[in-house]
Specification:
It is built from 3 helices and no strands. By secondary structure, the chain is mainly α. Residues 1-11 have a biased composition (Polar residues).
């Protein structure tokens, strides 16, 4: 009885040795496939995270884009700097010219009004130029249609 068991064990052992390369190949394939799936999963998670980030920040005024040079904090700092530097310099200059506070305020107001008027005029001129650029292709199309230009 022990001989048959040993013979059976030897047969089983041979079968296992014969199946071993096939099983090792399958194991290798499964490991490779598993690694590919892990990489794909990581890539998809990364893309999903980017998409979620874009959706969260897009058109959301509560989330600040740190790469934006015109974000509110920077604008506040810029205007604060204008007040601290330029406005103070003007006040010191005007104070040397006159001690009359009302006169200083009037001059500052007049300067601000002149600057505002200049900016308005410049904006209107620039807007007309931009409209002219957009209308140019339309004009050319109609002229070429009427005059048979190439």
């Amino acid at each position: 009885m022990s001989k048959s068991r040993t013979g059976n064990d030897t047969g089983t052992c041979r079968e296992m040795e014969e199946k071993s390369p096939t099983l090792e190949e399958k194991l290798g394939k499964y490991k490779t496939e598993n690694e590919k799936l892990k990489n794909e999963k990581q890539s998809l998670l990364s893309r999903l995270s980017q998409l979620a980030g874009v959706q969260m920040t897009e058109n959301n005024p509560n989330v600040t884009d740190l790469s934006d040079i015109n974000r509110p904090i920077n604008l506040g700092e810029d205007f604060s700097e204008i007040y601290d530097n330029e406005y103070t310099d003007v006040l010191v200059y005007l104070k040397r010219k006159s001690d009359d506070v009302k006169n200083m305020q009037d001059k500052l107001l007049k300067t601000a009004e002149i600057c505002h008027k200049f900016c308005e005029d410049f904006e209107k001129k620039q807007f007309k130029e931009i409209l002219g650029v957009f209308h140019l292709p339309v004009r050319y199309f109609f002229l070429s249609f009427i005059m048979d230009l190439p």
